[in-house]
Write a structure and sequence with these properties.
By secondary structure, the protein is mainly alpha-helical. It is built from 22 helices and 14 strands. A hairpin with a 4-residue loop joins strand 8 and strand 9. Helix 7 packs antiparallel against helix 8 and helix 17 packs antiparallel against helix 18. The longest helix is centred in the first third of the chain and has 30 residues. Its main location: membrane. Pfam families: SusD-like_3, SusD_RagB. This is RagB/SusD family nutrient uptake outer membrane protein. Belongs to the SusD family.
Length: 596
């Protein structure tokens, strides 16, 4: 056995098992990476190492971290984010922790990068070179993505007051390596992310696709003299769903937005310009503003477009989706979140805070005198997204369009606080759920679901936020559209302000601060329950302790519940902690200020 490679695999196991002792049988069961042992017939094994990077993408599953914000509460008392929100967030009790997960993924990716040149993927030497190039690109891209999530969850001001990231690991760690490494600066981590994304972009095609005979000129020149068959073999549509150049550009836009945000940005406008341009680079691949307007019919309801989802092919993306995970036939989301009368557990309950954030149909916030809002009839003439995303009292749901009664004196288990699975706020979740799922035990059905990693609307909102900070509401820099243009398109897609030319937006476009609040609110609405609000509040230096509100409806009277659940966060909690166990083991690591 190649003992050096064995050490690398053992260290990967250490990253996954923490402080548990490794016993000899476990070491013996680690399969060797000695090229002579698996080449050329078993390239699946080294490719499996790369798949460990994919398996650790944090957005593979829903986090519902909204439960730790002013957007939602949960009736599940064991929910980790609920515990975070109510004062139980510590450095050794952190449901948002990505330290072990992401560093384990980086370890596997570093192994792949070190070993990839030794693997014979196919016997054709030209095609083999293309395979090697592609897999290197995937590994660099995934490493950047995992580093971004490490910064999102663990970067912050250390006890020294400096903005710190995480240790930068560019090679596999072996048992003889020094694990006691200091944290790199936040800026150095960002530079490494950009460098890895550059490496991914230069090696990967924009998208995986097959070319036909006669289309040789379409093969990117960076791959040299290759045949159609050789190109398709390494970069063909078969590999759709894996990391691409398009994804690399989108991850760059995500990371740049984080770096430009108030909690991390010490350089002012320059980082906002950078973030806006990186987001524009992604949007421009889909027609710029057309990235929002061209999918107006389906962009809001991507999760429930039944015919679109039914016809999706492996790896292919609907118009709204830039990158997604594999689809599956299940009813998990509905089981967790349908109301009790539909045989669900009603877990995620949207708050009155979120409901109040949806404007009126004419585009005005409900607090504006011009809105026409009637607190005695609060759901009429509202933003259509409200009833798309939130199940309000009296609305229908499920395969039989069952009316859901959430009133305080309701006679079913859907009523406010009636049983353990009842709503705590007067609302149930509707977004993400397929209403054609049947949970009745006598006739239960599954439906097809998928989880996006990146949506074009996310990138469009990133552009709007950054462009407004860089150039103001109507400035464009070197691009063809402004923050105002993006927000107008998003609101028009939702059906907002169509009768009055969105007078509120028109009034906001002359003021950067007003537009900032509007952009942030649109981001809150469009991306609700998708895992953004928790991090957005922190990167904005926004208020974290806004109590979660609800509504009690009785005899037609709507009474606001001002504090269904308090939010208990200290000011230093805008940054997450370094895991306490890591601080104990490695004294070179500096904890973020405020955390013990």
């Amino acid at each position: 056995m190649n003992k050096g490679i064995l050490k690398i695999l053992v260290c990967a196991a250490v990253l996954l098992t923490g402080c548990e002792d490794l016993i000899e049988p476990a070491i013996e069961n680690n399969r060797q990476l000695d090229p002579s042992a698996y080449l050329p017939s078993d390239s699946r094994f080294p490719f499996g190492i790369l798949l460990n990077g994919y398996n650790r993408i944090p957005t593979n599953s829903w986090s519902f971290n909204d439960v730790a914000t002013d957007d939602a509460v949960s009736n599940d008392q064991d929910n980790g984010y609920l515990k975070m929100a109510t004062g139980q967030w510590t450095a050794n009790n952190n449901p948002a922790n990505q330290w072990t997960n992401c560093f384990a993924g980086i370890q596997y990716l570093n192994i792949m990068l070190e070993e990839v040149n030794k693997v014979q993927w196919v016997t054709d030497p030209v095609a083999n070179r293309l395979f090697t190039t592609r897999i290197k690109g995937e590994a660099y891209g995934l490493r950047a993505l995992l580093m971004y999530h490490l910064l999102l969850t663990h970067a912050g001001k250390g006890t020294s007051g400096k903005m710190l990231g995480v240790p930068i690991l560019l090679k596999p760690q072996t048992t003889s390596d020094n694990y006691n490494l200091p944290r790199a600066s936040f800026d150095d981590c960002m530079k490494q992310i950009y460098q890895d994304l550059d490496s991914a972009d230069v090696k990967l095609p924009l998208d995986y696709q097959n070319f036909s005979i006669g289309q040789e000129s379409l093969i990117p020149t960076k791959y040299g003299q290759v045949t159609i068959e050789q190109y398709n073999r390494a970069f063909g549509v078969t590999f759709s769903g894996l990391f691409t150049g398009r994804i690399a550009k989108a991850v760059r836009a995500q990371a740049a937005l984080l770096a430009a945000s108030p909690a991390y940005n010490n350089e002012g406008t320059n980082k906002w310009v950078e973030a806006a341009n990186y987001a524009a680079n992604v949007l421009n691949l889909k027609g710029g503003l057309d990235a929002v307007t061209s999918n107006a019919a389906s962009g809001l309801t991507w999760y429930s477009n039944t015919s679109e989802i039914a016809n999706i092919k492996d790896g292919a993306n609907p118009p709204e989706i830039l990158w997604r995970n594999n689809w599956g036939e299940n009813r998990d989301l509905e089981q967790a979140n349908f109301p009790p009368t539909l045989f669900g557990n009603g877990r995620i309950n949207p708050t009155q805070n979120l409901v109040d954030a949806f404007p009126m149909l004419n585009g005005y916030p409900i607090s504006n005198p011009n809105s026409g809002y009637n607190p005695a009839d609060p759901y009429t003439n509202r933003d259509p997204r409200l009833k798309m995303f939130v199940l309000v009292n009296g609305a229908t749901a499920g395969v039989n369009n069952t009316a859901i009664n959430t009133t305080a004196n309701g006679t079913t288990n859907d009523a406010l606080n009636r049983v353990a699975t009842s709503t705590r706020t007067g609302y149930y979740l509707r977004k993400l759920l397929r209403q054609d799922v049947n949970l009745n035990p006598t006739s239960a059905t599954n439906q097809r679901h998928y989880k996006p990693h990146i949506r074009y609307t996310e990138i469009a909102l990133a552009y709007a936020e950054a462009a407004n900070e860089a150039w103001g509401p109507t400035g464009t820099g070197t691009n063809a559209y402004s923050a105002y243009d993006i927000i107008r398109a998003i609101r028009r897609r939702a059906g907002i302000g169509t009768s009055n030319n969105d007078a509120y937006l028109e009034s906001a476009k002359g003021n950067k601060e007003t537009m900032r609040q509007l952009i942030r609110n649109e981001r809150r609405l469009e991306l609700c329950f998708e895992g953004f609000r928790f991090w957005d509040l922190r990167r904005w230096n926004a208020e974290l302790t806004e109590p979660a509100k609800g509504v009690s409806i009785q005899n037609g009277v709507y009474t606001i519940l001002p504090a269904v659940q308090d939010r208990v966060f200290k000011t230093y909690m805008k940054y997450g902690p370094i895991p306490y166990s890591e601080i104990l083991k490695f004294p070179a690591l500096e904890q973020n200020e405020g955390w013990n």
